[in-house]
Amino acid sequence: MPAVQRISADDLLVLLAVGRSGRYITAAEELGLNHTTIARRIAALEQAIGGRVLARVSGSWELTELGRGALSAAEAVEAALRSLSAPDGVEPPLEGVVRMSATDGFCAYIAAPAAAAVQRRHPAIAVEIVAATRRVTQQRTGLDIEIVVGQPQVHRARAVRLGDYCLGLYGAVDYLADRGTPRSPDDLADHCLVYFIDSMLQVDDLDVARTFAPAMRDSISSTNVFVHVEATRAGAGLGLLPCFMADRHPDLTRVMPDTVAIQLSYWLVGRAETLRRPEVAAVVESICARVEEQRDVLLGVAAPG
Q1: Per-residue pLDDT reduced to its tens digit, 75-88
Q2: Domains contained in the chain, number
Q3: Domain shared by 218 and 235, yes or no
Q4: Structural domain span for residue 186
Q5: Phi-psi region of 279 (alpha: psi -120 to 50; beta: other; left: phi over 0)
Q6: What value does the CA radius of gyration of the chain take, rounded to a whole number of Å?
Q7: Is the same domain home to 255 and 217?
Q8: Of 90, 236, 241, 279, which is the most buried if we count CB atoms within 10 A?
Q9: Is 56 within a domain?
Q10: Residue 115 phi, psi (nearest 5)
Q11: Is residue 251 domain-shared with residue 176, that is, in the same domain?
């Protein structure tokens, strides 16, 4: 009978890092190892288990069925090590880096306060926030969480609906006094639109949003929604803006609220194994709580506090 090879706990922790990030190089940085060592540890684990634990899919490493089973063992090892670092009866401290991407407005008004709340409770957690308005990435390399607009089509990941928000049409008080306030869709042809750059917009739901007034010409366009807000405040035209951002400015007036009220949804996407990480779960919980707390503000039915 062939000898049964001993499975190394260190090799399991290497698999855990690769399984969560999808990349050897990211796992190497997290563990303080080099790429070659990561590859060698994975090869040793596969030899000990007797099969492949990772498969190359679309430029990233995905867990095989055997790998998912090994990952459960790796998570148990991680939890055991974490418990040893805390005194008896004390919840082990959460630590680590959580990396996320989200749209500009969500980053500023939802993600940042949520991350700050986590950091106050768990000072050893660091949150890196990347502002990006785009479709969900299929590889998710280097990111633990993605927040996108519109229901995403994902593979080998979980998608969770966070909540809705509303886009409204706004004009600066001085602009409307000078140019007149539109009362019907026909009046919009006399005004320019401040919104995203059409040719660079990757999000289908945001692209569809502008069809409410096809006759409006573009004024100032940008990939950044904060530019939309400031250009509208400066009188560049009527801005199609998130209500939770525009309603913070008393010099902006919402026009035609019954006609132009475009409801969109925020979705959170992450690998199932990544979302189980305690530090990631803490950030997700805080984001969900912040979205619920700001629900009426996001929908434009309450003033921002």
Answers
A1: 788 878 877 766 66
A2: 3
A3: yes
A4: 164-264
A5: alpha
A6: 24
A7: yes
A8: 241
A9: yes
A10: -65, -40
A11: yes
Q: Are residues 168 and 258 in the same domain?
A: yes
DSSP label at 112?
A: H
Q: 21, 50, 84: which is the final residue of a domain?
A: 84
Q: Are 165 and 147 within 8 A, CB to CB? A: no
271-302, pLDDT tens digit by residue? 888 898 889 999 999 999 999 999 999 999 98
163 close to 298: Cβ distance less than 8 angstroms? yes
Asked if the model's pLDDT at residue 119 lies above 60, the reply is: yes
Task: Report residue 74: phi and psi, to 5°.
Answer: -65, -40
Q: Is the predicted pLDDT of residue 239 greater than 90, yes or no?
A: yes
In contact, 63 and 54? CB cutoff 8 Å = yes
The pLDDT value given to residue 168: 95
Separation between Cα atoms, residue 147 and residue 188, nearest integer Å = 32
Angle at 131 between CA 127 and CA 133, to 5 degrees: 140
Q: What is the largest CA-CA distance in the chain?
A: 90
Calculate the alpha carbon distances from 222 to 195, 204, 218, 219, 244 in Å: 7, 16, 11, 10, 19
Residues 280 and 143 in one domain: yes
